[in-house]
Amino acid sequence: MRYGFILAGGTGTRLRPYTFVLPKPLIPLGGESIIERVLRSFQNAGLEHVAISLGYLGHLVEAVIGDGSKHAVNVTYTREEQPLGTAGALKLIPFDLRDDDIVLVVNGDTLTSLDMGELLTWFECTGADAAMVCVEREVKIDYGVVTADEQGNLVSISEKPTTLNQLSTGINVISGRALRTLPEGRTDMPEFLMDLVANGHRVVCRTVSDLWMDLGRVEDLAAANDLIERGLI
């Protein structure tokens, strides 16, 4: 069985003043909110049962999304009495998971063109315990990078180098058997995934070329809305 889980409890401090009145997942993006776009991608992937983790202004998210029927999914909600982190929130998942069930976990401020259904099918074929979706990004340093040996002797100078890095998108797939290992208390996803690896579980990375944006800043929202207005997404 496949399930969806949306992390929608953040305070959105980088998006103030917008988030003084709206939780980040409800900020408009084109003709719908960010979280409604995530739900649509879940529905397109064939997911029927979705849990949304609420926190800051969570009652507004529940008022807009309701039971999920208008998005053709069944939505239930979890609430954290204290912040549990991006992985710890999964301790409250309301589904009776079997070991071979899988949960698609997505941050509520994510914009992506990724085919979630294809992602889940790929994951099921890997036999892995968990997966993280990654994108490649070039990072340019606008200075000369100097390498010296232990005695301080110059070894090399790299003028304004560019490095290619794999970045986590905050989109993860977790098996039921892996979720049973979640510790009590606050746990963030990077810590949880590395603990899985340390304990002999298999965690795979899927690097994609699809559009992915973390809509955590005002300039990110402006860029995303520009793409939508131009019909590029």
The parts where pLDDT drops under 50 for at least 5 residues are none
Question: Major β-sheet, in short?
Answer: 7 strands, mixed
Oligomer: single chain
CATH architecture classification name = Alpha-Beta Complex
Average of the residue pLDDT scores: 89
The number of distinct helices, counting runs of at least 4 residues, comes to 7
Class computed from helices, strands and strand pairing: alpha/beta
- Strand fraction: 25-35%
CA radius of gyration is 20 Å
The separation of the N and C termini measures 30 Å
User: CATH first level: which class?
Assistant: Alpha Beta
What name does CATH use for the topology? Spore Coat Polysaccharide Biosynthesis Protein SpsA, Chain A
> What's the CATH H-level homologous superfamily?
Spore Coat Polysaccharide Biosynthesis Protein SpsA, Chain A
**Share of helix, binned:** 25-40%
Total separate domains: 1
Molecular shape: globular
- List SSEs in N-to-C order: EEEHEHEHEEHEEEEHHEEH
Give the total of beta strands: 13
Strand order of the largest sheet: 5-4-1-6-11-8-12
What do these coordinates show?
The chain is an alpha/beta fold. It has one domain: Spore Coat Polysaccharide Biosynthesis Protein SpsA, Chain A. Helix content is 26%, strand content 33%. The chain has helices at 34-44, 58-65, 85-88, 116-126, 176-179, 189-198, 218-229; strands at residues 2-8, 28-29, 32-33, 49-54, 74-79, 102-107, 110-112, 130-140, 144-148, 154-159, 162-175, 203-207, 212-214. The longest helix is centred in the last third of the chain and has 12 residues, at 218-229. The mean pLDDT is 89.
